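ok so i was messing around last nite and threw this chain in just to see what happens. nothing serious, just curious
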Amino acid sequence: MKNPLKFSIATRIRDRYVRNMLKPRKGDDILDAGCGIGYYCEFLSDSGARVCGIDIDKEAIDMAKGLYPELNFSVCSAGNIAFKDSSFDKVLCTELLEHVEDDFRAVKEICRVTKPDGLILITVPCPEGIFGSLIKNIGHSRDEGFERHFRKGYSLENIKALCGSNGLKLLNYRYSMTFFVEIYMGFTKFIYLLLRKASFNKQSDLKNIDEHSFAMKLNRLFLGVFLGVGATEDVLLSGIIKGHMLILLFVKK
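result:
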């Protein structure tokens, strides 16, 4: 079985930012905080980095271990990370903080386990895009499951203040998912809900997807096109229109 997130536009649109901003390389010790079913652990390890993935969802970690038995995963809360101070050169925290009730504590812990001058790449939803949080919340229960949203997202000012109060300095940021890609993500979510007739409460729910179904084959057919559209959108529109995703690179000082 392939990782279903390989065919998720909302996941794959982040690939080039993770590669170009975090710059994973051989010998790096990298933590993927909130790794889910391990997509970015494999992505980062392909560069030769030593990667550890943590997530509070045991089912997701079990699925990640099944998909990538050669990688290191553990069940662990972002608010209480079971590693010593300054354990990692770099940390990836993608689409996690909106699902954490105490986001200050999570950022504090991420900062603690990062080495001085280490890099931290964070992605969060941004409710200031054209569609607000309307499409982002499709299929997500507000009251239960690990995919619960405790907040709609973050403005640039919000996330800078949260991270700055924990000793992080912003180096760079980008907006993504400005228009067409956000619409396409909404369409794929609608199809998922139509086929499953259930909300998306945790990443391990993705194990129920039939990768040979007509819907998945159709998604694969158009995924590359929309990834190209997304890259073009980001270049042309992100300086004019705020996107629905914020990607931020911080350094620990």
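not much to say yet. The first helix runs from residue 9 to 12.
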